[in-house]
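hi! just following up on the protien thing from before. the input was this:
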Amino acid sequence: MKKLVLALLVAVSVLTLAACGTDDSAQGVTEDTVKVGNTAATSGFLAFVGEPFVAGMQAYFDMVNEDGGVAGRTIEYIQYDDQFDGAQGLTYTQQLVEDDEVFALVGHFGTPTVSATQEYLAEIGIPTTYYATGVSALFNPEATEGERASFPVQPIYDAEGEVMVARAISELGAENIGVLYSNADDGRGLLNGIQIRAAELGVSLAAVAQVAPDSDDMSTAAQLMLSSGVDVILLAMNQAPAATAVRALNAAGSDVPVITSYVNADATWLNGVQDALGNFDIYASAWIDIFAANGVDFSEDYNLFAEEIGTEYAANAYAFAGWIAAATFVVGLERVGDEPLTWENYINAMEEAPVELPFGVVVNYADGRRVGTQAMAFLQGTSTDGVAAWETDQPIQTIDEILGN
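and the predicted 3d structure came back as:
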């Protein structure tokens, strides 16, 4: 019954939306503007992620608009705060699509909202560029029909799990890997990739422990890692549980290096666990690179970003992500150019060639490929005078490059 009701609602919405716009253009498009939106957690416990993410998006759109927009159209950006709640995210997403009549969703934020809205958006077929999550459901190598309107950029968790294993072996010489994973979409996706790549390489997962994502006591799981003789610990979890896991390992007296997900590769997260840095190394995946080819100077991409975003978020990885989200959408606009701005024209434009984005990110959407970027860098946490920071240990590489294949 739920699917039938959704199908009926979507059918009515599609007929209504198809009639919107000017001339041959889609809804949210006028001669002078194109309207986009998203719903993101800008209050609540994940506001420290959502606020800089939204700021990064807004800064990029402001820059484009100040330069005259794209094909004579400036970008109007609408944002709602869903507090990282899937039910609110669905409500606001429907409001954006059906009431605000946006042309596209840009920077679709967070696993709860993405999971709650994915079926709805695929049925309608509205372009959705960039997801602020790596949830496994986004992985689709052969998208068709409404699924073609989906354009993930960030690494999907399953792919990152494979990268984590490759780095543990190539950089840290791992032979007996321990895995702490959260019983949530992110943790299960990362674990799946870890298991796949470990099996292919014949590497032992000496200990695997599941924890609740909201647990404030992971001492038992930490003790299991130590008693199992692991030589590297992979933290397959997002910000809050990963911080709890690091503190538990530190309290247990661990000296085993840890690798965590790219979602934690931010100075804010690292500063929260820097007490552990004196006892064991902390590494993270990273899918962007802000440095020039010499690995010392900042890149032109970063310098432009820093100039536009201002000092508050100039070193914030979540602001980088918002900047990339907006840039992803604008690539499609630029490719459509002066042609009618329709959903189909936009989708075709995104598929016609690899999409090159700021900070060295490249994504290929050809032939329905919707898998995000699959190349990542390797960062190491450092602490100097009480200030924690990430430093690049290895540049962005594919899994084959990481393993020397």
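The radius of gyration is 21 Å.
Residues 329 and 353 are 14 Å apart (CA to CA).
cheers
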